[in-house]
Amino acid sequence: FGLRNVTDQPKALASMLRVLKPGGRLLVLEFSKPVLPLLSKLYDAYSFTALPLMGRMVTRDADSYQYLAESIRMHPDQ
Q1: Which of 15, 25, 47, 53 could disulfide-pair with 69, CB 3.0 to 4.6 Å?
Q2: Are 57 and 67 within 8 A, CB to CB?
């Protein structure tokens, strides 16, 4: 969840790049929404149903996993 929850993305990226070694690389992985309609429906079912359920079973915190699904949906497409 590298940049999705950062309020000032340019400032965060500048700070990340500042601490890289010369020639170093920065890799930020983010979830995104599938573009294929069938895959999108399956992904939504997993994200909004299975993921919070598993989160509740493993961490007793379904809300954080519900938030994860919602924040993925709100993040701009790549």
Answers
A1: 47
A2: no
